[in-house]
Structure formats: C-alpha cells, structure tokens
Amino acid sequence: WIVEELSRELLEGHPEIDEVILFPRREAREDRPGALVARLAGLRRALRGRRFSVTLDFQGSLKSGLLALFTGAPRRVGFGPGSSREGSFLFANEWVRPSSSSLNRVERNLTLASALGARGDEVAMILPERPREASEAEEVLRRVAPDGGPVVVMSPGTSRRQAYKRWPALHYARLAGLLREAGGATPLVVWGPGEEALAEEIVRGSGGMASLAPPIGLRALAAILRRADLFIGADTGPMHLAWGVGCPVVALFGPTDPRLNAPLGPAHIVLRDASSMEGIAPEAVAAAARGLLERRTTRCAPRRMPILSRAALGLVGDASR
C-alpha cells in the first residue's frame, strides 16, 4: 500500500497488509526541481524493483495514477474516463466504470476490487486495537467524564485546501453548551496537526462546557471513538474513522454531496446546507445528537464496526469494465 505520512500510522502493522510504502509528499513539495526529479526517479526504481503484477488506483488522481505507472505492473486497474480525476485513467490499462456517478466512496472502491474477482456481501473496516491505544483512550475518557456519562467527540478541523467544509468555531462552541445543558453529555474537542488553536478557540468560546483532548495520533483517536457515544464533524478523515470503528455520527455537509461521502448505515444522521456550512444551526445539530444519544447503552466496552450488508444498504451497483 503506497501511502502518505499522515495516514501511515493507520496502516503500519495491519494484519492484511504485507508492506506499507511511504510516498514522501512533504519532502517532495519542498524539493527544488532537480531534487524532485531525482527523488521521483529513485521511488520509481524502488517500486519497479518489487516487480508488482497488478495495481489498484482507488484515488483516481494524477499522483496516484503516476505511482501506479511507476511500478511497471503489467495490470494497472483504475477508474475510467468520467470516473477519475486529472487524467489518471491515462495511466491505467484496465478501466472500471462504476454503475453510477453518485455511488458512495465505499461502494465505488468495492467495484474496483470486484474487477479483480473479489466477492462478498460484507462491508467492514478492519483496524485492530493495540493495548497501549486502549489504555490511552480510557485514560482520556476517565479524565473528561469521570462519572461515565456520555462523551461526544467533536472534530472541527479540515485541511487548508478543504476549508469550505469547516463548520464555524462559534457554532461548535454553542453546540457544546446545548449538549451539556440538554443531555448532560461531555463534548470532547479533538484536533490534528495545525488545529490546536482552533480547538482551543472552541473550548474558550464554550465557557468551559467542552473539554480539550490532548495531542493524540490517529490510532488513539480510533480507540477513543470506539468508546465514545457520538461523533460530530464535517466530511473529513476523523468522520470516516468514526464510522469505521462503529461510533454513531452526526455528519455535517455543505457543498459536497453526502451521497458520495456520508457514513453508511442507519446509526448515523446527515445534516446539510448546500449553500454554506454556516447555515447548519447548532440547535439542529443538538437535536440530531440527542436523538442518537437516546439510543445509548452504558459504555462498558469498545464498540466494533458492525458488518453491514451491501444489499441492505442499497449498495448493489455493479461495475461495467
């Protein structure tokens, strides 16, 4: 699996991955043109030296298409024209065309795997938990909710490139108060690299109603989400991680299409204002959160991602090649 630094932690040591290969995006962006060419040439040599026989380009971008080409694999499976971006289909020699342009990303990726003969009716994300991560998560939750009351994880950050997905900090602060006052829940604000100031702004704005999470990695965040009662956030990596480990989600969408990226299954609620994220009122989010929290059972063990039926979710689209 070729991956960038930010996601590397989730994949290393995974029981179904033999090798994680790092694409040094950060270093490559800082290279001078000559150094960048030399770096990419070295990566190409290293990939070709592994003599891969097939690649799957799930991302469908120029970068992922080039990396597939670098491997020299005789079979390069990717999405066809109209289903990929930045001309990545030019680097694949075997095209997959999803049955619909509005397929959820999960189903879209499954069609690519199906092109190689993968079969099955189960949708689940496998992410084993290590004892150290479990201990770290339980310590955080004990600190913020010593009485064992419900914990709602709020993730306000987005990448700079996707700042349009960000729900306003003032809305998160207002929501924290509503969750405390109405349901006695403890809002826990989590943050990633470069997001600490945003998280602190929300905690201050909430008047102490929200708690600030310590700096944690993605695997520790997954362990917290397994034990939390609810996740609230935009269409970002932490939202997908919450869905993947079985945490109920209130997903906040603006211009992006929730049909493509929303969490799957009946345990989640999607709220959307297509014109502006600001149009999603904290009161509406609090009402959705209360609805999901009412289904809560006593938190005693980490949740596990339910095995969902593709047919029950309506994920029955086929790929035409």
Mind explaining what this structure looks like?
It is a single chain. The protein is α/β, with parallel strands linked by helices. It is built from twelve helices and 14 strands. The strands form four sheets. It has a six-stranded parallel β-sheet with strand order 9-8-7-10-11-12, with helices on both faces. A four-stranded mixed β-sheet has the order 3-4-5-14. α1 (5-11) links the parallel β1 (2-3) and β2 (21-22). α6 (131-144) packs across α9 (218-227), α7 (169-183) crosses α8 (196-205) and α7 packs across α12 (282-293). The longest helix is centred in the N-terminal third of the chain and has 17 residues, at 33-49. The two termini are 24 Å apart.
Instruction: Tell me the fraction of residues in β-strands, as a range.
Output: 15-25%
Largest sheet, strands/sense/barrel: 6 strands, parallel
Given helix and strand content, the structural type is alpha/beta
Note the overall shape.
globular
Write the layout of secondary structure elements.
Layout: E1 2-3, H1 5-11, E2 21-22, H2 25-30, H3 33-49, E3 54-57, H4 62-71, E4 75-79, E5 94-98, H5 105-114, E6 122-123, H6 131-144, E7 151-155, H7 169-183, E8 186-189, H8 196-205, E9 211-212, H9 218-227, E10 230-234, H10 237-244, E11 249-253, H11 258-261, E12 269-272, H12 282-293, E13 308-309, E14 319-320
